[in-house]
Amino acid sequence: MQRFLVRRFLITIVTLFAVSIIIFAMARVSGDPRTMMLGDFVTQERYDLVGQKLGLDKSYFEQYWIFLKDLLRGDFGNSIKENRPAGDVIWERFVATFELGGAAFLFSVIVGIPLGILSAVRRGGIMDTLSKAVALIGQSAPNFWLGFMLIVIFAIRLEWVPPSGRQDWNSIILPAVTLGWFFVAANMRLVRSAMLDVLDSEFIKLARAKGVSGPSLIWKHAFRNAIIPPLTFAGVTLGNLVAGSITTELVFAWPGLGLLAINATLGSDYPVLQGVVIIFTLLYVGAALLVDVLYAYIDPRIRYA
After folding, report:
1. SS3 78
2. Would you tell me the crossing angle of helices 270-298 and 86-121 to the nearest 10 degrees?
């Protein structure tokens, strides 16, 4: 068990190191931030002075070394655009993004998993057909289109919820449903497939022959043995929902990391852009590591694989 966890942890460290190099390189593709900050009409002396202040006069290797040392200390540097610590700028937006991603994750689990179980148990029935329709719409409708449709119906016509922004508690409903609908569909299909495999297995037939039925058969015997695929997807889903909310935040003007990343890219704000991508990466890798650990506890065969 200990060797399994150490191996997974080392893989995580190597992944983060590789990602830091990619982030550093990609952040500089958009150009020199001095061009946007100072404009075209600026003296060479002023241009060089700003470059020294931001560390842009050093070689890329030196810049990366400084970036890596600061990163290990949790220091993302100062925002070029806002002239204050990039960590503060990111944290202000991270709370909003985490709220949205968490709400969408809960929506996808609470709706998707029961639908998948009902669809498998009532195979070929009305519930199975309705669940398939939900999955088809969820996996084929683009996020931005679904968001606009929800705004038109529930915010403009019915006036039940605010159309955009982060205001009252109900302002998170539409963006959470928009962001989570695809994962509702994916969870439903994955759980349905896993449950059908388990329900057709020999040990379920034996349990039925012994008189086990109802909720005990479904939850204790079937779902417990079908949980590995949904658990895998849940780990990936959590990272995707938090890091993949850019389109949804743009549609609903949600003040999160997605909009911050777009503005940082357009403004060549290296520290903020690097910090946002690092936070997204940590969420992805952390979720994957958590799933690996849960695997080892749920199924002892995995830890020895």
Report:
1. strand
2. 40
The Cα 75–Cα 271 span in angstroms is 9
| pLDDT for residue 221 | 65
State the Cα–Cα distance between residues 29 and 285, nearest whole angstrom. 24
Q: What is the pLDDT of residues 190-233, one digit of tens each?
A: 888 888 887 777 777 777 776 766 666 776 667 777 777 777 77
Smallest CA-to-CA distance from 241 within 228, 254, 226 is with 254
- Joined tokens for residue 206: 């034996």
Q: Compute CA distances 66 → 22, 23, 206, whole Å.
A: 15, 14, 63
Smallest Cα–Cα separation from 220: which of 205, 234, 207?
A: 207
How far is 80 from 76, CA to CA, in rounded Å?
11
- Structural contact between residues 281 and 16, judged by C-beta atoms closer than 8 angstroms: yes
Is there a contact between 63 and 55 (Cβ–Cβ < 8 Å)? yes
pLDDT at residue number 128 = 79
| Measured distance CA(127)–CA(213) in Å, rounded | 20
Q: CA 126 to CA 71: how far, in whole Å? A: 54
The type of residue at 145 is: W
DSSP conformational letter for 85: B
Q: Kindly state the DSSP code that residue 84 receives in the 8-state scheme.
A: S
User: Token digits for 46?
Assistant: 């002023």
Collect all residues with Cβ–Cβ distance below 8 Å to 45 and sequence separation of at least 6. Answer: none
Condensed to tens digits (0 to 9), the pLDDT of residues 233-268 reads 776 777 677 666 778 888 888 888 888 888 887 777
Dig out the tokens for 187 from the structure.
Answer: 């969870």
Quote the tokens at residue 273.
């852009």
Mark the ranges of the chain whose per-residue pLDDT is less than 50. 304
φ/ψ region of 162 (left if φ > 0, alpha if ψ in -120 to 50, else beta) reads beta
- Quick one: 140 exposed, middle or buried, by C-beta within 10 A (0-12, 13-18, 19+)? exposed
Question: How large is the greatest C-alpha to C-alpha distance in the chain, in angstroms?
Answer: 87
